[in-house]
Amino acid sequence: MTQVNPPEPRPEWERYSGVLRNLVMANSFVALVLELALFVFVAWWALDLDHALWTRLLIAVASVGALIVLWGAFAAPKARVPLPTAGTVAVKAVAFGAGAAALWGLGLPAAAIAFAVLAAANTAAVTYFRRPRGA
């Protein structure tokens, strides 16, 4: 008996056409930039701490590594552990919240608020575009 593998997930923009397809693709690009920025902000915060250099490097590597594992396991489009939509949104809220908190900790409250608002809007759009058809 042959085993049938489930179809490989396709990018959400393949379901759209015209201008909407371009908007969905642009939103996916913004999502990638926000994800990378969150890792940079957390590393920047860790490296700005008032500790010895080796301690700051250890905190930076550990915190960014933990976020990467969390994101890859639960929030990425091809996550190893697929969660229901609410679970994925919760994981993204924790991760983006860490990025916003890092900016706040660096003394950049306006940037932290702007990052949090942009991440929330982008996550809402990505969640909407990735929903099953007819839902």
Task: Tell me the series of helices and strands, N- to C-terminal.
Answer: HHHH
Briefly note the structural class of the backbone.
mainly alpha
Give the overall shape, derived from the CA principal axes: globular
Question: How many β-strand stretches?
Answer: 0
Number of helices: 4
Q: What does the radius of gyration come to? A: 17 Å
% residues in beta strands = under 5%
Could you describe the largest sheet, including whether it forms a barrel? none
Report the span from N to C terminus. 35 Å
Low-confidence stretches: none
Helix content: over 70%
Q: How confident is the prediction overall: mean pLDDT?
A: 90
What report would you give on this structure?
- 71% of the residues lie in helices and 0% in strands.
- It has helices spanning 18-47, 53-75, 85-105, 109-130.
- Helix 1 (18-47) packs antiparallel against helix 2 and helix 2 runs antiparallel to helix 3.
- The model has no long low-confidence stretch (mean pLDDT 90).
Short description:
By secondary structure, the chain is mainly α. The chain has helices spanning 18-47, 53-75, 85-105, 109-130. The model has no long low-confidence stretch (mean pLDDT 90).
